[in-house]
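ping. complex inputs:
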Amino acid sequence: KAGVTQTPRYLIKTRGQQVTLSCSPISGHRSVSWYQQTPGQGLQFLFEYFSETQRNKGNFPGRFSGRQFSNSRSEMNVSTLELGDSALYLCASTWDRNSGANVLTFGAGSRLTVL
Amino acid sequence: KNEVEQSPQNLTAQEGEFITINCSYSVGISALHWLQQHPGGGIVSLFMLSSGKKKHGRLIATINIQEKHSSLHITASHPRDSAVYICAVRSSSGGGADGLTFGKGTHLIIQP
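pong. complex structure:
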């Protein structure tokens, strides 16, 4: 069965722009979680969704937002981009509402460069 | 605040050696994950533990809840095991509703 699909894989934006990233989970998985990875901070939790509801949010500013659709696909949006937002953004899916208590399947990530 | 510490940060070993990577955390947890990340970014989930020990092939993961410590072992290491290994925990506070907290990772290089 198809894995977790993230699009786009690579993108370049300039400061002040906004970006939307997409994540399609494994068929049947209803939970999607998002993570940011940078060389300095490592992996950090952004937010997680289950059945279109945000269950948890990490310690990121309000410029970072997300949503989940009825087909479990999820998007995250970053507005007013800053240079420090350059990172690899990863999503992961699992079948249960408690994403951390189940094995996660990760997508390949979207690498964002902000110039 | 939950802290996750991994050791060592970097490890270079010869093919065939027994490898141990350690993870310590500071708060009660509901689950601990071991992840593998190869150059290029893809992350693979190796284990999810809440107690005891799990084995998959040459990989073994153990957890001691009382000591807040987990270890990942690789037996008969091979160059293809070269990767970053990341420990992540899910806090048991807040009804288990917190997101994962990650360690900084252990960079493992296995030389032929």
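The longest strand of chain B covers residues 29-37.
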